[in-house]
Amino acid sequence: MKLTLQIWRQKNAKAEGKIVEYPIDGIEEDMSFLEMLDVLNEQLINKGDEPVSFDHDCREGICGSCSLFINGEAHGPDRGIPTCQLHMRMFKDGDTIFIEPFRAAAFPVIKDLVVDRSAFDRIQHAGGFVSVNTSGNPVDANTIPIPKHDADRAFDAATCIGCGACVATCKNSSAMLFVAAKVSQYALLPQGRVEATDRVLNMVAQMDAEGFGNCTNTGACEVECPKGISLDYIAQMNREYLSASIKG
Amino acid sequence: MALSGLFLISFLSLHFFINMVSVFSADSFNAMSHFMGYNPLIQFVMQPVLIAGVVFHFVMGFVLELKNRNARPISYVKYNGAANASWASRNMIISGVVVLAFLGLHMYDFWFAEMNYKYIAVNTINETRYYEELVHKFESPVRTGLYCIAFVLLSLHLWHGFNSSFQSVGFANKYAKALHKLGYAFAIVIPFGFIFIALFHHFNHI
């Protein structure tokens, strides 16, 4: 495949960035998107140019490190996958592909396509945990009966890998789907109910303090989420938040 | 936004019902309009609450839009919003501004005229004037056209707004799917019903 890449290049967090065009040839459709960028970077290094910086780690859809905004969509045109699992067969020979970093005031660009997503870590630190030390004894956890429906929903919420696609794709740069998944995975389980009131208030307060936008329920986050986290979790969090606000 | 939106939805339903009566019976429409216009509870309690609800809804809408724009100071070079969200959900500010502009015209046409009639000019009570006033307003093709355009935009606003309001207040249970369908039906039936009423009076009285 022969492609034209339009890639956001930015030297550092303070520098002005711009789109730079890179023609590339010899791309196979079985390559992953990140492998295609590896090929480009090899060519750039061989020419003595600066390679394109981008986040990646496990490359098997688990870690949530990759974060590209491809042709106007978070993680590209495919559904239910992060960028590392996007394959070049999704594109046609001769295509022009725009590759940009995830954009949000709360996700500042560090370099090229790499953004600082530590805002998510700070939201987690504000309440995304259970304080009780269960001492690694599995018997304790299994002695608490949990309805299957609740266990399944908590598990589905816990599949969020915190990649930030929800923020990147939302027209308002809202982090509601991420925070809702993290709040819900605990709120649905008895172990998490103990701290549920403080958790939702603190995590939402931290989300607002980080400068994320407000949710207007467009549903774009659910569509682009590589783990298919449902909008229902946002409704769940809204309920949690309303009742926590009343309780104080 | 959600609570004020739901409040305005309930008002819109009542307004639609009264307007629809005008299609069937001028006398009933006059009786209902007179009741709404002279009942002290509606005039001095419900009307100020309604005006506060409208003002709150659009002021919060602008504040929300501004805050959300600031949350992404550098825009994408290529952003394919249509790939994952409806036009109606992404452009509530556009449909909202059109509806707000229409509301200005509507207030000028009916509310200011009514206030002038009752409290400034202090005219004598006439229980049968409402139907004629309504029909007179729909004689102009320009006004009727603007009315229809505004209600198409209101339909788009409700297409997203109805269900979004329930999502914001945390409604997600086994009735949610049925409620979604009801929301879409409401977004079509009510605005296009208003359009039907406008066209009915326009074509019946030219």
From TrEMBL, chain A:
Occurrences of domain 4Fe-4S ferredoxin-type (ranges): 151-181
Family annotation (InterPro entries): 2Fe-2S_ferredoxin-like_sf, 2Fe2S_fd_BS, 4Fe4S_Fe-S-bd, Beta-grasp_dom_sf, Helical_ferredxn, SDH/FRD_Iron-Sulfur, Succ_DH/fum_Rdtase_N
One GO biological process term: aerobic respiration
Pfam families on file: Fer2_3, Fer4_8
GO molecular function, one term: electron transfer activity
Highest taxon of the lineage: Bacteria
UniProt xrefs under PROSITE patterns: 2FE2S_FER_1, 4FE4S_FER_2
Cofactor: [3Fe-4S] cluster; [2Fe-2S] cluster
Family to which the UniProt record says this protein belongs: Belongs to the succinate dehydrogenase/fumarate reductase iron-sulfur protein family.
Protein name: Succinate dehydrogenase/fumarate reductase iron-sulfur subunit
Species in which this protein is naturally found: Flavobacterium franklandianum
Organism phylogeny: Bacteria, Pseudomonadati, Bacteroidota, Flavobacteriia, Flavobacteriales
